[in-house]
Amino acid sequence: MQLIDGKKISLELQEDIAIEVTQMMASGLKQPHLAAILVGNDGGSETYVASKIKACERVGFKSTLIRLPDYVTEEKLLQAVHDLNNNNDVDGFIVQLPLPRHINEHKIIEAVKPSKDVDGFHPINVGRMVLNLPCYVSATPYGIVHLLSAYNIETSGKNCVVIGRSHIVGSPMSILLAKNTALGNCTVTLCHSKTKDLISHTLKADIIICALGSPEFLKGNMVKDGAIVIDVGTTRVASTETKSGFKLKGDVMFDEVAPKCSYITPVPGGVGPMTIASLIKNTLLAAKKDIYK
Ligand code: NAP
User: Fold this and answer.
1) pLDDT digits over 147-162, tens only?
2) Which residue out of 7, 166, 199 has the highest number of ligand 1 atoms within 8 Å of its CB and is therefore the one to mutate?
3) So what CATH class is 139-272?
4) What is the CA radius of gyration of the chain?
5) From the CB of residue 26, how many other CB atoms can be counted at a distance below 10 Å?
6) Is the CB of 165 under 6 A from ligand 1?
7) Residue with the nearest Cα to atom 48 of ligand 1?
8) Parallel, antiparallel or unpaired: strands 227-231 and 246-249
9) Closest ligand 1 atom, CA of 251?
10) Is 140 in the pocket of ligand 1 (CB under 6 A)?
């Protein structure tokens, strides 16, 4: 079994980006700039945004954090989005999800200018991804594809099961892996909460992407020998072992599954750092106007 070290690959990717940023600025181009809107003070969201800002510092990007209270109106949030759309110094920005229930998430995502949508959530970017056109690919699936490639994991002709069909992880992941591209060509089965006899699918899978948000859901008896398992899940569970009082748990029962795998990602240190690296990569593409001229 080989552990896939997402932290290492993420830092390597960021080192390459940092070199490119230094070169860009030496040639007189402006410093790439990522902005984030954070609504409320949910602990998980605070941590994710802090990691994104830290990554910006690491690669030499400028970053701006816009904090809004959890009672912010949809109108005010839309105004903040429009301001960033029109701010020529900002290359790309994200609105950290989830949003409070009184705000229509789709309306906010659709308000982001596609050329600045470095999270790759806007329908234009999702549609372009499906059609194999230049776009920002949603950060988590993009990071997973990069991880598979970094470990020279062959995807062509493999049976792949994706568990979870969210718009930001499972669905785009299933599309990327099924594409006729070097990092695709899998035969993909997309499973969800209505899937019957899930184990009959996972037992046939060469690659399993677990993205449902249910701690330790995938057990050893659900995985065939030699499978590649990518654990996307990050659920905060109470813990007396940590200072913060919680621990991050993946969707995979690691101790049971790992011995059967050829490759597996840990939680933390697997997919999470790659999501950040992909966001930074998308922002670099935005700054260089590589996708939208
Ligand atoms: P989500 O929007 O809650 O979607 C969960 C999906 O899992 C849904 O499609 C749901 O099916 C499916 N599901 C739930 N229970 C199931 C079951 N028992 N059997 C099969 N499918 C089941 O979740 P998400 O936003 O994709 O996030 C999934 C997990 O990944 C969470 O733990 C999240 O924190 C984590 N995450 C991590 C990163 C990272 O960077 N590491 C990034 C994003 C998300 P239905 O559609 O039928 O309801």
Assistant:
1) 999 999 999 999 999 9
2) 166
3) alpha beta
4) 19
5) 8
6) yes
7) 193
8) unpaired
9) 32
10) yes
Selected from 3.40.190.10, 3.40.50.1100, 3.40.50.10860, 3.40.50.150, the CATH number assigned to the domain covering 31-113 reads: 3.40.50.10860
**Selected catalytic residue, list 91, 117, 119, 231:** 119
- 193: its two tokens: 């909460």
Our answer to whether residue 96 is catalytic in this structure is yes
Q: 293 pLDDT exceeds 90?
A: no
Q: Write out the H or E segment, with its range, that includes residue 2.
A: strand 2-3
Same fold, 31-113 and 139-272: yes
Cβ–ligand 1 distance for 270 under 6 Å, the answer no
The predicted model scores a pTM of 0.96
Residue 31 has pLDDT above 90, yes or no: yes
Q: What is the pLDDT of residue 244?
A: 86
Query: Do 272 and 6 touch, CB atoms closer than 8 A?
Result: yes
Nearest to 260 by CA among 231, 221, 232: 221
pLDDT digits (tens, 9 = 90+) for 71-101: 999 999 999 999 999 999 999 999 999 999 9
234 in contact with ligand 1, CB cutoff 6 A? yes
* Residue 119: active-site member: yes
Nearest alpha carbon to residue 66 among 55, 52, 58, 57: 52
**pLDDT of 268 above 90:** yes
| 51, amino acid identity | S
Extents of the domains making up the chain = 31-113, 139-272
Reply yes or no on whether 31 is catalytic. Answer: no
